[in-house]
Structures are given as C-alpha cells and as structure tokens.
Design a protein that fits this description.
- It is built from 13 helices and six strands.
- A hairpin with a 4-residue loop joins strand 3 (265-272) and strand 4.
- Helices cover 69% and strands 6% of the residues.
Length: 447
C-alpha cells in the first residue's frame, strides 16, 4: 500500500507538470506567431512572460519524471520483470523525446532571443511543442497498453512479449486516451492562463498583453471543452467494451435494472463495497442508458456480475468521475458566458466576470486529476488489466526500506514543488516584461 501511495503521489505531481508543458507550448507558439506576423508588442510581452514559467515547468517535470521511472526498478520489479519487454521501449522513447526535444530545445527557446534569427527561434518553439505531444504519445501508448493489453504472448518465464513492434501501439483505447489527454491539458492550461490574465486585468485594467492572453484562452476553451465532451463519450464506449468493471464502478451499478428498464443516472450515492449496494442514492431513471448505450433501455454489466476480487475500489472511482464531469460542465458554462461577453465588448470591463474567471483557474487541473484517479484506480486490482495483478507487480522490499524511501520522496518532492510554486507566484504577481525593451531586443536580433 505504501508503494502504491508513493507512486500515486509522484505520478499525480508529474502528470500536473506534464499537462502544463503540453498545454502551454501551443500558447507560446501562438504568442510568437502573433509577434512575428502581426508585430504586436503585447504578444512579445506575453511570450516573454510565459516562457519562463514553461522553462520552470519543464525543469521540475523532467526531474520528477526521471525519479518516477526509477520507481519501476525500486518498487515495481515484478511489473518491470514481466512487462518490461513491452513498456520499457515505450518509456525509453518518451525519455529520449523529453530530454532532446523538450529539455534541450527549451534552453534554446529561453536564452536564444538575441542569439538566433527570429524564424529559427520560432521553429525551435514549434519543435518544443511537437516534443511535448510526442512525449505524451509514448506515455499514453504505454498506459493504454496496460489498460487494454493486446497482441502479446506469455513465454515460459511468465514474461509478456509483444507480437511485433507495432503491437506496442495497438491498444484499442490508445487513440481515445491520447485525444482525451491532449484536450484535457489544453483546457486546463487555457483556464489557468486565462484566470491569471483575468486576475492581472483586475489589477491593471489597461494591460494589453493580459487582454491578449485572456482572449486566446477563451477561444481555446470554447473550442476544446465541447470536443472533450464528445471524446469523453467515445472514451466511455471504449471502456464499456474493454473494461466493463471500471465502467460499472463509475456508475455505481451493483445490479442490472429489470428488463425494459434503463440504467439510472446516479447523481449521488455512497457505494458500500462490502454490502454491494449504494446508500443515500439519488438517481434519475433511464437517463444513464441514454449516454451509456444511446437509448433508454440498454444495460451495462453490473458489479455483482464480476468476482469480488477483480473489482476496483468503487467509492473513489464513483466520486472522482462525478467531480470530473461536474468541473467539465462548469467550465463549459463559464466558457460560453465569457465568450458571449467578449463578443459584446464587455469582458474586460466586467470586474465580476474577471473575478469569476480568476476563481476558475484551477478547474481544469481538478478535472484532470479526477480523471486520472478514475483511470488508474478504476484499473485496480491490475497493473496490466486482466493479466498481471498489482499485488504480483510490487518489489519484495522490507517495510522499513519502503517507508524510508517514501519519506525521502516526500521531502524532495515537497521542497521542489514548494520552491517552484513560490517562484511561480512571484513571477505571476510581478510586472510584465517592459514592452519597449522586448521590442528593442527583437530589433537587435540578426535578421
């Protein structure tokens, strides 16, 4: 249990940083493009402002990712021994991309403003954004194979061997999972970036760079949130086909309804895994079938149809899913409302709406982490779904060693994230780069 908590802690922190780099990189590309082709000084200011936050995120995220991958050897030797032939190459590709495209080129992007041509600098910024997507591609390929494993054989030693190199990308949930994660990252950063811009506008109403940031963030959120609703539905259909126990836990469905009756939409309940029932259930009849089977009478497999020792912890999966959906609906509402006010020309003068947007900054990341809990806790008790149990994946470490490593991880991660947060808050609250200075700097850059 300690090993699982430790991995969940490090993974939860790392996925937040990874989503930040993944979602922030396209904004950097957009700011730089607006400067190069629109010659807007405020775009250059926004680029200089966010590029430092991006570099900080990449630095901490790279270190936290390396530590996390070391844990496969220290805490999950059973998993590494049996599934290393499949997951190992995917993790290697991700590390190569993370180091050579993201980390190395981020240095050029950060310090190269007055050292390389503007077109070269823009190409580097684009490559960093591509590197972030490729990094997510390999990580999601590994995770998707663990969630929905296909095209492998077991050798005499019980090791999982891929049928071919392409088998590593053949997991049926891969496409939906990657799309869902990309959209989640862009939405999370759009609300975070937009919230910071709104907060700055409350302090400095005439700040043109903050208006540009907020305008871009609202455009991204308006496009991405509805798309996320669609991909979420398609992801649900994939889960129904390949991980039915996880879907039953999401719905809190212990027993199938009577024939002719649809699955209810459970708005609230307290699932009781021991008694295999829900307490204090509040539900709307048949509506669950509408989004689960796209009719009013379709059923899903209920939790009682599975062996008890193959069920995930239902309570956290049930609540995390509702938190994720609740945040998503709230973001959709806020995004539509704010964009309508933007089109009417009232956004930047409405202090009430700016305060609302500032308060909504963390919504995307709350939804993202909730979705991650649904995905990973819902996979239990398996590390490789239906093939390798978590209990058989853990290393035979002594309790004292596990506790000592856990404390060391807590101290190092706690210190690193505290320092990073301190710098981030200081930077966000500080003044924007001087507009005339960044423009003069760009003029001095060799053409």
């Amino acid at each position: 249990m300690i090993a699982r908590v430790q991995f969940a802690l490090t993974m939860g922190m790392h996925i937040t940083l990874a989503a930040l780099t993944l979602g922030l990189a396209p904004f950097l590309v957009w700011f730089e493009a607006r400067w190069l082709w629109g010659k807007k000084p405020e775009a250059r200011q926004a680029l200089h402002f966010w590029i430092k936050i991006f570099a900080l995120t990449v630095a901490i995220g790279t270190v936290s990712g390396v530590v996390m991958e070391f844990q496969f050897g220290t805490h999950w030797s059973g998993f590494a021994s049996k599934a290393g032939g499949i997951v190992g190459p995917l993790m290697l590709y991700e590390v190569l991309v993370a180091f050579f495209l993201e980390s190395a080129l981020t240095g050029v992007m950060l310090f190269g403003f007055d050292r390389v041509r503007p077109g070269v600098h823009f190409a580097v910024t684009c490559l960093v954004a591509v590197g972030a997507v490729l990094s997510a591609f390999w990580i999601l390929a590994a995770n998707s194979w663990m969630q929905t494993p296909v095209q492998f054989t077991l050798n005499d030693s019980g090791q999982l061997i891929p049928d071919s190199g392409w088998s590593l990308l053949a997991a049926p949930s891969f496409g939906w999972r990657l799309t869902h994660m990309l959209l989640a990252s862009w939405i999370s950063v759009a609300f975070w970036l937009g919230g910071i811009a709104a907060w700055r506008l409350l302090q400095h109403p005439g700040e043109r760079a903050s208006r540009l940031m907020l305008s871009g963030a609202l455009t991204v959120s308006l496009c991405a949130v509805p798309l996320q609703v669609v991909t979420g539905d398609l992801q649900g259909e994939n889960t129904l086909a390949h991980q039915p126990a996880k879907l039953a836990a999401i719905e809190g469905s212990w027993q199938a309804p009577a024939p002719g009756e649809g699955e209810p939409l459970r708005l609230f309940a307290i699932p009781d895994q021991q008694q295999q029932r829900n307490h204090l259930e509040v539900a709307i009849p048949a509506i669950g079938s509408l989004y689960l089977r796209h009719n009013l009478t379709g059923h899903i497999q209920s939790l009682r149809e599975f062996a008890p020792d193959t069920l995930p912890p239902v309570l956290p999966v049930f609540f995390a899913f509702r938190l994720m959906v609740g945040m998503g609906l709230l973001m959709l509402l806020v995004s539509v409302l704010a964009n309508i006010q933007r089109w009417r020309g009232r956004l930047y003068h409405s202090r009430r709406l700016l305060r609302l947007l500032a308060c909504c900054s963390p919504l995307g990341f709350i939804a993202l982490l909730s979705g991650w809990i649904v995905t990973e806790v819902g996979r239990q008790p398996w590390t490789v779904y239906g093939v390798l149990r978590t209990a058989d994946s853990v290393s035979p470490l002594s309790l004292s060693s596990t506790v000592m490593i856990f404390i060391a991880i807590l101290l190092v991660y706690g210190l690193g994230f505290a320092l990073g947060l301190y710098y981030l808050l200081r930077h966000v609250a500080g003044p924007l780069p001087d507009g005339e200075a960044v423009v003069a700097e760009s003029v001095q850059t060799p053409a």
